[in-house]
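Input.
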Amino acid sequence: MSDGRTDTVRACFERLFELHGLPEAIRSDNGSPFAQVRGILGLSRLSAWWVALGIDLERGRPGHPQDNGGHERMHRDIRVELEPSTAEQAALDMWRQEFNCERPHEALGMRCPAQVYSRSERQYEGSPEDLEYPAMASRKVSQDGDIKWEASDYFIGTSLAGWSVGLKALADGTFEVWFGRLLLGWIDPATESFGRADIRPPEAGQPKP
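Output.
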C-alpha cells in the first residue's frame, strides 16, 4: 500500500468487505493503525469502525508474536522468497496466488487455503451513521474525545470521536459506558470521574462489571 494511514487502510478494508463480506472477528497485532496502545481497550479509529460494523476484535499479547504464529510464518516466507526481488505488487500477487491456490498447508490437512475458504454471509452495506442504544441514554463523543453528562465533561477517547456511546444507569447512581458490545468503563457523577474498564478494577463502592 502507498502508506499506513487510517484512511488509506480503511479504504482497502471497504473494498475487501465488498468482495468477501463482513467477518465475525478480525485478529491483529497491537500496532497502528489496527490498535492504539494508549486508547481505551486499545481502540484506534480503524478498530472502532470495525466494532461499529459488528466485528469482534482479537489481538495477540504485545511482544508475543507466537500468539499469531501462522501469520508470522507467512511473513517470514514472504521475506525469504521475495527479498531478492523488488517485491513489487506483481510479484506479491503471484506469491499470493501460489500461497492460496497451489501450496498445501499442513495446518489445513495438506489442503490449500482456497479449498477451505468460503465467503462470509454477512453483507457489507456501508458504514452506519452512528450506533443506537435502545435501552440506554446515548451521548456522542466530541472531536476532543469527550462526552457531556449532567453538565460535566468526561474524556472517553479521540478514537471514538463522532460515534455515540450508551450509558446504562446502575443502582448506586453510577453509569456503565458502552460502545457497541464493548464495556468501556463507568461514570461516577458524584466525583465527576470516568474509570476505564481496561486500567483498574472497580474499587470498594464502585460498580462491578
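The first helix runs from residue 6 to 20.
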